[in-house]
Amino acid sequence: MLDTLEIMKRIPHRYPFLLVDRILEIDLENQKIKGLKNVTVNEEYFNGHFPGHPIVPGVIIVEGIAQCLGVLVFEQQGGEGENPKVPYFAAIESVKFKSPVRPGDQIIYEAQIEKQKRNIVKANGTATVDGKVVAEVKFTFSIMDK
Predict the structure, then answer these.
(1) Which of 22, 32, 49, 102 is catalytic?
(2) Is residue 81 predicted with pLDDT exceeding 60?
(3) Is 49 a catalytic residue?
(4) Which of 34, 45, 72, 132 minimizes the number of CB atoms within 10 Å of its CB?
(5) What DSSP letter does each residue of 2-39 carry, written as one string?
(6) Which residues pair with 38 in a beta bridge?
(7) What is the distance, to the nearest Å, from the Cα of residue 127 to the centroid of all Cα atoms in its chain?
(8) β-strand 32-38 against 22-27: which pairing, if any?
(9) 106-117 β-sheet, strand order
(10) Nearest-CA neighbor of 118 among 91, 78, 85, 83?
(11) Under DSSP, is residue 80 helix (H, G, I), strand (E, B) or coil?
(12) Ranges 28-42, 64-78, 101-115: which has the least confidence
């Protein structure tokens, strides 16, 4: 399990855009990762999305899944080394949002690499709240220098 400080050693994101609070599992053999985000009413995006009816923007959920994937890529490389690589979005092939996420919810992110060829990674992910899928995504990343 990795806490926020350990996550920040692995990916470049920082407040207010670090969207993963903890990594729960890393399975290098099956190229899977699981992380979590505790959603608080103090999140910056709630100031405008939507006042009086706060819900987490879908793009934020997708980014949280992608940040977990960034941690997985880091771990696959065996640590930082001299020139750490980071995944950048190349495409989002599909995304489905199934239910809103609100303050007080705990999002569980799961991501898995489906295929990797050199620096191109195809992956998919889900976000769940209380065991219910709230988002699904399939995307492509390009692994580049930090």
Answers:
(1) 49
(2) no
(3) yes
(4) 132
(5) B-HHHHHTTS---TTS---SEEEEEETTTTEEEEEEE-
(6) 106
(7) 9
(8) antiparallel
(9) 22-27, 32-38, 106-117, 120-129, 132-145, 85-97
(10) 85
(11) coil
(12) 64-78
